[in-house]
Specification:
Length: 386
């Protein structure tokens, strides 16, 4: 059955789904659909990265011919594939750990998991290092080598092709939006990761069953801006609350399997808003994530980027908002500066100032007495695990 459904007006992503005679000319970044009977000729320009506004990622031209005999003759097939394909782009914001998952891995899982590995990935703006870093995940989604679309001169033909990745919401999946009626969830994605990396724990410690056992807390210590300035105090406070504490600074060059296993061995993940909290995807379901939100009315962003996704993963989400007295911005700028006195005015001035001050120039010194109730909430949650 012939079918072309393109959505280039979505709030975040641009996609096309094509069923029928589909021909991909990779080096030309063009897709031609040959209808079985006369129809209206249409053309779409689709950015195959999950964020349609992303610059530096070329669009793909998708053309539905008017008829099999259209004057613009369809390119002949050099290779015909039995498996369907998903065409997507790398580049963009990839290289940032959070964006690797939110922009590519989660949408790619949602688009391709239903095929059980019988799907071909056509990748424009390919990044070999990226495919190497996430090789285990990509290999479980597709049993075929990814095609470097920009250097692929031959015309490949398919019966089904998806152009572009759809970002449902940040770092998560909306079940109703999963293609093919499969109703995938973010919990399905994290279960998939645990299978992929053979992670041993599918539940956190249960203090109800093992009252004498200490739950393990992993404290993410960022190497630059938005750092904890008093890590020893925070570690001591967490130990006093009943945790065994590990302090870790994320390494971009660490093998992902190593990171996944380390995170999975813990029951609580604690960190300031930032890419390190993406590691929540490796925690056992029922574990806890504590996000420390920097000063500056960033709660809405923090919940969008991590709070809602963490809940969708089946984890307990706790939030601690930094007060002005806990931010290095107070000492840097003084109490009368608008950044301290009137954060809403900074937000009104535009994203650049928000990013410059609240994300780029701020470190935090947690008041451990004020933080103690949050640690107690985490312990209480683990007490109720069965």
């Amino acid at each position: 059955m012939d079918r072309v459904v393109c959505n280039t007006d979505g709030p975040v992503s641009e996609t096309c789904d094509l069923d029928g005679d589909v021909r991909v000319n990779g080096s030309a970044l063009s897709v031609t659909f040959v209808p079985s009977s006369a129809s209206e000729r249409r053309e779409w320009r689709v950015r195959p990265y999950s964020r349609r506004t992303m610059t530096g990622v070329d669009r793909v031209t998708v053309t539905r011919l008017g008829s099999p005999q259209d004057a613009a003759a369809p390119p002949p097939c050099a290779v015909t594939h039995d498996a369907p394909a998903v065409l997507f782009a790398l580049g963009g914001l990839t290289g940032n750990y959070w964006h690797d998952f939110s922009d590519v891995l989660v949408p790619l899982f949602a688009a391709s998991r239903r095929y059980g590995g019988e799907v071909l990935f056509l990748v424009s703006n390919i990044q070999p290092w990226w495919l190497g870093k996430y090789e285990a995940v990509v290999r479980r989604l597709s049993r075929y080598d990814a095609v470097d679309l920009d250097r692929d001169a031959q015309v490949r033909c398919f019966r089904h092709l998806t152009v572009g990745l759809r970002l449902h919401k940040e770092l998560s999946i909306v079940p109703e939006l999963a293609p093919g009626g499969h109703r995938l969830t973010m919990a399905d994605f994290t279960a998939f990761l645990r299978e992929t990396y053979a992670l041993p724990r599918a539940a956190p410690v249960s203090l109800a069953r093992e009252p004498g056992r200490k739950p393990r807390l992993l404290l993410i210590h960022r190497a630059h801006y938005r750092r904890f300035e008093n890590v020893p105090e925070i570690k001591q406070a967490a130990e006093a609350a009943g945790f065994e504490v590990t302090v870790a600074s994320p390494r971009a060059d660490a093998p992902l399997e190593e990171t996944a296993r380390a995170v999975n061995s813990h029951d609580v993940l604690l960190g300031v808003h930032g890419a390190g909290l993406t590691n929540a995807v490796f925690l056992p379901p029922g574990a806890v994530v504590i996000q420390v939100v920097p000063y500056g009315k960033l709660e809405r962003m923090a919940r969008t980027d991590f709070g809602e996704p963490v809940a969708d993963m089946g984890l307990r989400y706790l939030e601690y908002s930094v007060a002005a007295e806990e931010s290095t911005l107070l000492e840097m700028l003084g109490p009368e500066h608008p950044v301290i006195k009137d954060p809403e005015s900074i937000h009104r001035s535009g994203w650049d100032k928000v990013a410059e001050y609240y994300l780029g120039k701020q470190d935090v010194r947690i008041d451990v007495n004020r933080f103690a109730p949050t640690l107690a909430q985490a312990i209480d949650h683990l007490r109720r695990q069965r």
